[in-house]
């Protein structure tokens, strides 16, 4: 496998992990793929650039480093400020306030 093919597959695999909600860590990824942590950092930078470009075209996701989890995670910016409990609470408030007509 050529280096460019290996890098492409590595980028897709990392992105897939992020899409599945995994927290990825440079050191673990470097060991998994047999590359340096610096290579993984470049991969993360490329994925960030890709998502930033997609965001300009209407996408709503970004990769951020979470110090508490000590790894990178994919954040869907349209839902970033509300967790599931808050969304449920808002839905209940709206339904119980009869803000919507029966139709």
Can you describe this structure?
- This protein is mainly alpha-helical and about 100 residues long.
- The chain has a single domain (about 5-80), classed as Arc Repressor Mutant, subunit A.
- It has four helices and two strands.
- The chain starts with a helix and ends in a 7-residue tail after the last helix.
Per-chain topology:
Blueprint: H1 3-19, H2 26-33, H3 37-56, E1 61-66, E2 71-76, H4 84-96
Antiparallel strand pairs: 1-2
Helix pairs in contact: 1-3, 2-3
Short key terms for the protein model shown above:
Arc Repressor Mutant, subunit A, mainly alpha, 103 residues, elongated, two-stranded antiparallel ribbon, 12% strand, 2 strands, 4 helices
Radius of gyration of CA atoms, rounded to a whole number? 18 Å
SSE string, helices as H and strands as E? HHHEEH
Distance between the termini: 59 Å
The number of helical runs is 4
Q: Can you list the strand order of the major beta sheet?
A: 1-2
Under the CATH scheme, which class?
Answer: Mainly Alpha
Task: Give the overall pLDDT as a whole number.
Answer: 81
């Amino acid at each position: 496998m050529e280096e460019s093919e290996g890098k492409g597959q590595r980028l897709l695999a990392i992105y897939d992990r992020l899409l599945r909600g995994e927290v990825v860590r440079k050191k673990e990824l470097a060991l998994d793929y047999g590359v340096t942590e610096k290579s993984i950092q470049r991969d993360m930078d490329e994925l960030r650039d890709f998502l930033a470009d997609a965001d300009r075209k209407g996408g709503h996701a970004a990769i951020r480093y979470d110090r508490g989890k000590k790894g990178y995670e994919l954040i869907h910016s349209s839902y970033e400020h509300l967790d599931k409990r808050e969304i449920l609470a808002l839905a209940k408030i709206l339904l119980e306030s009869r803000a919507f007509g029966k139709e």
